[in-house]
Structure formats: C-alpha cells, structure tokens
Amino acid sequence: ITAAVEAWVRGAAALPKPWKPEKPVLPVEGMRNILITSALPYVNNVPHLGNIIGCVLSADTFARYCRLRNWNTLYICGTDEYGTATETKAVEEGLMPQEICNKYNAIHTDIYRWFDISFDYFGRTTTPQQTRIAQDIFQRLLARGFLLQDTVEQLRCENCQRFLADRFVEGTCPFCSYEEARGDQCDKCGKLINAVELKNPQCKLCRGIPVVKPTQHLFLDLPKLEERLEPWLEQSWATGDWTANARYITRSWIRDGLKPRCITRDLKWGTPVPLDGFRDKVFYVWFDAPIGYLSITANYTDQWERWWKNPQQ
C-alpha cells in the first residue's frame, strides 16, 4: 500500500516508459519474456460469449497486464481445423472441409477483432508449418521407439468404402438403450462408448449398416514413459502451482497405469501420416492439435524456436 501511495504521489510522469517490442516479438536477453496462448477454438461453429469468456478473454486480460508491467509479451492463438467434426460440418453444409475451415476461420477472426482481443497473431492449423512440425515430432517419436503398431476392430461402411470415425456412426447405446448414441459417447447417459459396442449401428453418411473389420493403427507407447514421468511429476507438484483438480486427475492416471494411446485415424481430413503402410491415414486430432501452438508461432516468425525451445529465457 505504501508503494502504491508513493507511486500515486509521483504521478504518471515518473512511470517507466512503455516497452515497445520490435516485430516480430522475440525473447530479449535480460527481460522477463512471456508467451501466452489461448486454447485453440474449434473451427466448425460461430463463437459465442461463453467461448470468449471461457478461454480467450482471460488470456487477453493477462496479456494486457503483462504489457502494462513492461514484460516482453507474445500472445498467440488460432483455429483448430482438423478432425471429424470438421468433416461432419462439411457434409452438413455441402462444402469441402477446407472451405468450412476458411469460412469459420474468417468468422472467428472478425469476432475476436470486434471484441478487440489483443492477439499478436491469430493463425490456424491447416498450414504447411503444421504438417512439417507434426510430422517431425512423429518421426522423432518413431526413431526413439515410442510408437507401437496394433490391430483395432473398427466399423467400416462398404457403401462409402471407408472406415467410420466415431462421429460418423450412430446406434443404440449398449448401456441405456438411447437410440441416437454416437460412436464415442452417449449423450443421454454420458458413458464413453467404443463404436463396435453400439447396437444397430448406422453410417451417418448413407444410413447403411457398417461391418466390423480389422485395421492397423499407431499408438503412443505411454507406459514406456512412466518411470521418467513419476519423478518429474513429484518435483513439479512440489514446486509448481497445480490446481487440486489437475493433481487428482493426473494421480488417477498414474495410479491406474498409463495405457498406449492411438494417434492415427482412417480419415482424409488431417495431417498425413508419413510412414509406409499408414499413408492412407491421418493423425488423430488430439495428437495434432496441441502442436498447433508451435506451428502458429512458426507462421508468425521463422524464429519460433526461440520461444518454444529456450528454457534460459
């Protein structure tokens, strides 16, 4: 309080001059460098006030605070554009997935500009940089033995000549008998579902009856990381600022043991898998989308690694 009173008495003229970073904003030696990201909004809808309050506004408030403190600040965001939800929306509107992305990326950009959200850069995930960085991370995982191959039983529509992603299947929930359950979750009872467990499954595209067939997929070998992850978590819990909820969920995963996680999908719309035998597949959006933070920064500046691979600053 005393410091605030003294600053008030000195007046605005005594305040430090506002920091004006050069463009592009890059880490500066000797300064506090702050990189801020908002959760990437999905591209198949018109954002409403709840979306903005949920993630964009809080990050914007923090970015403005950091700039007022004269900290060297970069605030980035962008639309998340791959995955089955985009394909589903494209089918609904009679457009190609890229056309859907172009349409809704423009809508998102205009709305955030109208709200004066202070992004330094607002990008998207359907870019060559996204493909390059995601495939590079994949190749590094492959070279270090962190990937597995396994056969998965999956629903295939012979009429459409394609394996059906979760959102392209509807049927009767095996738990509560709700007749419009999706291939990943029942919206009535809330239970997670494996698509092959659905009763009376139907292809949402042609209303045909799919058949169960085996298909090869790639998995992250997460159990291989447990020995290294546990001591890191203990240290991070002791020194970091984790919420109680984040600690509880993470502990439950470790307690139950990590499981291999599938990172590929039998889709057309996504980042292609650069491996023989899997070139007709794309990366699962939850492998691909978080890499968007890196690729969007890379589209902002070719020196993006100074933000993402620079623990000294």
Description of the molecule:
The structure is a single chain. With 313 residues, the protein is an alpha+beta fold. Among the domains are: 19-139 and 285-309, HUPs (Rossmann fold); 157-212, no CATH class. It contains ten helices and twelve strands. It has helices at residues 2-10, 49-68, 84-93, 97-114, 128-143, 226-239, 244-256, 285-288, 292-300, 305-308, and strands at 33-37, 72-79, 121-124, 147-157, 162-163, 169-172, 181-182, 199-203, 211-220, 261-262, 264-265, 282-283. The strands form four sheets. It has a four-stranded antiparallel beta sheet, with no helix packed on it. A three-stranded parallel beta sheet has the order 1-2-3, with helices on both faces. It has a three-stranded antiparallel beta sheet with strand order 7-6-8, with no helix packed on it. The two termini are 31 Å apart. The mean pLDDT is 93. GO terms for molecular function: ATP binding; methionine-tRNA ligase activity. InterPro entries: aa-tRNA-synth_I_CS, Met-tRNA_ligase_1, Met-tRNA_synth, Methionyl/Leucyl_tRNA_Synth, MetRS_core, MetRS_Zn, Rossmann-like_a/b/a_fold. It catalyses: tRNA(Met) + L-methionine + ATP = L-methionyl-tRNA(Met) + AMP + diphosphate.
